[in-house]
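Entry details:
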Amino acid sequence: GVLHEDLRLLLETHLPAKKKKVLLGVADAKIGAAILEELGYQCQTGGVVAEILRGIRLHFHALVKGLTAQSASKAQLGLGHSYSRAKVKFNVNRVDNMIIQSISLLDQLDKDINTFSMRVREWYGYHFPELIKIVSENYTYCRLAKFIGNRKELSEESLEGLEEIVMDGAKAQAILEASRSSMGMDISPIDLINIESFSSRVISLSEYRKGLQEYLRSKMSQVAPSLSALIGEVVGARLISHAGSLTNLAKYPASTVQILGAEKALFRALKTRGNTPKYGLIFHSTFIGRAAAKNKGRISRYLANKCTIASRIDCFSEVPTSVFGDKLREQVEERLAFYETGEPPRKNLEVMKEAMVEANEVVAEVKKKQEKKEKKKKKREKRRLEALAAAAEEMENSVLETEENETEPKKKKKKKKQQVEAASEPEENGLEEEALPKKKRKLVGETVQLDKKKKKKAKELEED
């Protein structure tokens, strides 16, 4: 819907000056409206225009000079890829899709763990039925089933292990006593092995669920700190998931956020002209549970209003902080107290002023930290570049040294030749010959003989 400079230039150069006589066919109605507003050309969309554009796209390679069908298809593919990439990159800093996936997985894990735990209870209950009454928690029951195994083998020695799992000495003693007088049937070792392996699977799933919840908390504190501070990580994540993204949630009005998740009940109420629902997903927050029955609707409306404010702050603020979320939570607490005791809450304007001051301080601190990190990065880069430069200098020096070493032996050879030539003239330098030691005299004599032999051979070759 935005008129690009290139498109403006194209239209201004190729369309006639008389604008009233021109009717321009456009595929997108928004661009048509922008052209009409800025350039004044009448635009038409749909109908015949769509068919003409389809024909142009089909025969585009024939209409444009120097364009083949293959290159046109490649261009279309490239355009499609770049468009998709731009759409994906539109919301780079927001990782709310990770939150959506993790909360969906968390809900699925809750259902699965519950189902599997019931299966363990039924399976192991044939052997040790009394354990169900003593231990009600699924995770602890599965750990006990794995630890105890055959109840007949349970003794005073295993009391410490039971205490570690149950975290209660009386319960551990009760389990030991129940195992001695149990009404359960005997069980074969292979059945026990299967029950233990299945129990260990359920335990590992429960432990993974805990890790996933921690991951969700960390993600929510990064993406939507105000919303998670106000309503909690899990409920906030559910709201984001139901809306589709944090941006979508920020666009919703408070009335929609209030009944988000209760669409079925809403449409049923509208159809039957009954009472519409007061709350949807926000019912899981602690505020509505703490409110009196007559105030539940009022507090849910107030909470939905604060949730929309928090989601908008999280979505559109440059540096997301939990300051606003904490202040909004305080406001909801004050409203609850007002319904119960009649104590008037603070005005929204006062609370937001305080929040702004605190938020500015937090943002300043964050920026300082970022600047420090950038400085450290720059220092590291400088050190790395200096190290690289030093390494390059060392390499150059080593290359020069090797070149010098290669040239030095040549000079030595020349010196040796000169010495040999000087020694080959003993008659002229009689005094020098006498000054030489005996060993050197022998070497000089041998070299002279070799030179004579070489000269003889050269003469013979010339004669031949």
